[in-house]
Design goal:
8-stranded parallel β-sheet; TIM Barrel; 2 domains; 442 residues; alpha/beta; 8-stranded mixed β-sheet
């Protein structure tokens, strides 16, 4: 913003917070009405020596520090001293609410046990279903809060949260109620999704009866209570087939739930084509999706939400062909796929995996974990970039530039997290307090 004599002499406008002296202010501003594709993913909108003004939880000004500080003053000025400032990460695919764990299965898998051997010992998703059914709402809130705390500390400020570990109407509604409570209690904004995740043992001989139960009872009750925004289905071998998935998604749409899809994780069933045909907001996983499916998703603007941690941990290191997807014009998002079989809360690690194994550039990975991830949960008008009027969901990384994401991994680079204009994580303040305590004890 050019400074005229009039602006130089006027009284500075009062704001709540000023963030100043960012070595890089990564804004991702502009051209965000649709998810970014191709070369658009490289444009991070970086402002050097950047500053952000925040008032009433919203961004009211961005620019270079000297310009912003001449126009604005604040009760709280946060000098980030040469660090890097980004929009808060958005995690568009998680199963954050569950009870139980699968560490024994992880060890068995490392030792070479087959999937059937794990199931014969009572493992698999049904183990988590049993534990989640037994757990009270309060227990699920407590355990999920711990996971959300870890996500927040690593820079995630908004996340999608799926049901899917209840597999009865009562228990699916219980999980969605937990998500609703967490939204009231925790700084992270959760976007709730009803997920048809698996066929329970009691319906193993008649899966069509379970599909009918989902369509005739679960979806109407979920919609009636207003507990979910999206309807998702796990379309793959061993889960729901293509026809069943389509019927579930159409039923969800007819009840006002926007479609999402777990697509083609272990085989090319046509999940990507289905995602495009039903107008899904996102098609997730897409490890084995065909070029035709990818072209269909690109044409319809369906976001491909890639889950590199799941590939790293579960599918024998077969990663989605992100480079080909970009060349076809598919918009990409990145997510943790946090669940009992892929126990990771850290979007920074997901960015690193995407760079190392999917050959995304750091800029592309950041775009996929911010503005495109916001599009994958229908929140891009509010989140995913540092722009005027958007929510002040902002993170400060203790690194000099954005290229350290992916390059330096295995540690948490986040120094500060701001959610809705409120500082909710401040490691620098915690370090200062610790030093003061040490000095007092000496």
């Amino acid at each position: 913003m050019p400074l005229t004599k009039q602006t130089r002499t006027r009284t500075r406008e009062k704001t709540d917070i000023l963030i100043v002296n960012a070595n890089e202010l990564v804004t991702l501003a502009g051209n965000n009405q649709k998810p970014r594709v191709g070369k658009q993913m490289l444009d991070l909108g970086i402002i050097r020596n950047g500053a952000v003004a925040v008032k009433d939880g919203r961004i009211v000004a961005i620019g270079k520090t000297p310009e912003i500080t001449k126009l604005y003053k604040a009760e709280n000025t946060v000098n980030v001293g040469g660090k890097t400032v980004l929009p808060g990460f958005v995690d568009p695919h998680t199963h954050v609410v569950f009870a139980g764990s699968r560490e024994d299965e992880f060890q068995m898998r490392i030792e070479g046990a087959s999937h059937q051997e794990i199931l014969d010992r009572g493992g698999g998703v049904q183990r988590i279903v049993r534990e989640t059914r037994r757990a009270s709402v309060e227990k699920l809130v407590d355990s999920s809060t711990e996971r959300l705390n870890a996500m927040l500390e690593h820079g995630t400020t908004t996340a999608e949260a799926k049901s899917g570990y209840g597999l009865t109407t009562k228990d699916e509604l219980k999980i969605l109620e937990v998500i609703q409570r967490l939204n009231q209690l925790h700084p992270i904004d959760l976007v709730p999704t009803f997920l048809a995740n698996a066929i329970p043992p009691e319906f193993s001989n008649n899966p069509e009866d379970f599909v009918r139960l989902i369509i005739s009872e679960m979806i109407p009750k979920v919609a009636e209570k207003g507990h979910a925004e999206f309807c998702d289905v796990f379309c793959d071998r061993g889960a729901f087939n293509l026809d069943q998935s389509r019927r579930i998604l159409v039923a969800g749409k007819n009840s006002g739930l926007k479609p999402k899809l777990h697509a083609d994780e272990t085989s090319a069933l046509g999940g990507a084509e289905l995602a495009a045909s039903v107008g899904a907001v996102s098609g997730d996983q897409v490890l084995f999706s065909s070029d035709e499916g990818m072209k269909a998703m690109a044409e319809k603007g369906v976001v491909a939400t890639l889950l590199p941690a799941s590939a790293f941990n579960i599918t024998n290191n077969r990663f989605a062909d992100a480079r080909s997807m970009i060349n076809l014009g598919v918009p990409l998002a990145l997510a943790t796929d946090l669940n009992p079989n892929c126990y990771v809360e850290n979007q920074q690690l997901i960015i690193a995996l995407a760079c190392h194994f999917m050959k995304l550039t750091v800029a592309e990975a950041i775009t996929a974990a911010t503005i495109n991830a916001a599009h994958a949960v229908n929140r891009a008008c509010e989140l995913g970039s540092i722009e005027l009027g958007k929510k002040a969901d902002i993170i400060v990384l203790d690194v000099p530039n954005h290229k350290f994401l992916g390059y330096r991994f295995g540690v948490n680079l986040v120094d500060k997290v701001m959610k809705n204009g409120r500082l909710v994580v401040d490691k620098e303040a915690a370090r200062t307090e610790f030093r003061l305590l040490e000095e007092q004890e000496m």
